[in-house]
Amino acid sequence: MPPRKNVLLAPVTVTPTKPLTPSHLKGLLWTDVMFRATAPLAEVTYRYSHTTYHVTEQTVGFWEYLDRTNGESDYTQLSEEDIGDLYIRFRSEEQRQSADVLRPYRDAVEHSGWVHPASERVQRAWAGHYERLGMRDPGLLEHQPPGLGLEEMIEQLIAEDLVLDQRDCGGPVHLDLTRYGMPLRRIVTADGRPNYLACALRELLPLVSRYDEVVLLYDRELDADYQLLRRVLTRLGPKVHRVPIGRVPIDGKIVSARHGGWRGYTASALLESAAGMCDDADALRLGMRLYFIATLGPGQRQTFRHDLLRHCLTVAGRLLSRSKAADATGAGDLPDALVRHRRDHTYVDPYRLTCSLLGSGRPAPDPGLLSAVYL
Asked: What is residue 332's predicted lDDT score, i.e. its pLDDT?
């Protein structure tokens, strides 16, 4: 029997500055099913560190804005939506603070793992959503610093001849993959502010050599950056797969959460609504996955529909009943049921696997499969 491969799942993180939206839920559920379905076939690490990305301007800039405009507010009394409204106001500000103003916040994150009370409130709310949805918590409230400091990351890129560092002449730092026909991409501003891609490199550069395969799951809007990231990581040895996941339109429109429009569609609202349609916790967990994975699919053409979510919850209840009835005949072989949903990669495709549960004439789902992957 061949040795089990080592696989690293590295999904894009959601900034803890706003409530979880349907687009966020889709990516999180997709990742959760991929992790749980691949784990019986390989040694899988699910890396999801908020600590790594707190130093980006959209997070520390928001924290500075809150301290400047709200003072010492008691954020434990605010909901995710309330904090999300404050984030919308922050993003509407035309003027951004300087790197010097934000530096104390970055230092507090880097040196002590500090998290602003507003984001801590959001993360604790998310932990509750994870629990209700049966998703594995990858360390939402843990301090998980990246393996490289910013300067160490730049030095490693210099050693690989993959960076254009113009700081000596007052310029920024660019990731340089022009030899591959790819554009320069700024990763650190002239005044020292790192972007999301710089943080991803700090996290993943020291990790990837330990793995046979790396899977990058991300929002389709970030495709250009993830093409660059894949090229850099491949230089270090592993096979790197990109898995773009489309956003979920609301009322036919795809709008960033920083612009609002998510009232009534947040994870809190959807879970409350789903609980009114379905009082079975397992049916809720399975139904949410049937909707966000199988029904919406990997693209982003289908707008969010409450009626289809309700239908998926109903279907989930039927599948669970059929699965329990079939349990008396004995469970099938879990690895065999999973391996058929792979292609030229080790990870299991969540879309193919979840769609295999549906359709007339299909056998009742294996209770072992449902328990291991969906509940």
From this structure: 63
pLDDT of 272-281, one tens digit each?
988 888 889 9
**Cα dist from 307 to 9, 18, 253, 270, 291, whole Å:** 32, 25, 18, 12, 11
Residue 109 lies in a domain: yes
pLDDT at residue 327 tops 70? no
Cβ contact 50:16 at 8 Å? yes
Query: Both 187 and 220 in a single domain?
Result: no
Q: Residue 14 has what DSSP assignment?
A: P
Task: Tell me, yes or no, whether 254 lies in a domain.
Answer: no
Contact partners, residue 354, CB within 8 Å, separation at least 6: 33, 289, 290, 293, 294
220 near 300, Cβ under 8 Å?
yes
Q: Facing residues of 241 across strands?
A: 215
Distance, CA of 263 to CA of 309 (rounded, Å): 17
Residue with tokens 């650190």: 188
The secondary structure of 292-351 as a DSSP string is IIIIT-SSS-SPP-HHHHHHHHHHHHHHHHHHHHHGGG----HHHHHHTT-SSSSS--HH
- Same domain flag for 319 and 369: yes
Helix extents (H) in 160-222: 196-204
- Whole-angstrom CA distances from 344 to 239, 340, 349 are 11, 11, 11
Residue 1 pLDDT > 60: no
Q: How confident is the model at residue 96 (pLDDT cuts 50, 70, 90)?
A: confident
User: Which one, of 255, 304, 251, 225, lies nearest residue 18 by Cα?
Assistant: 255
Number of domains in the chain: 3
pLDDT the model gives residue 41: 95
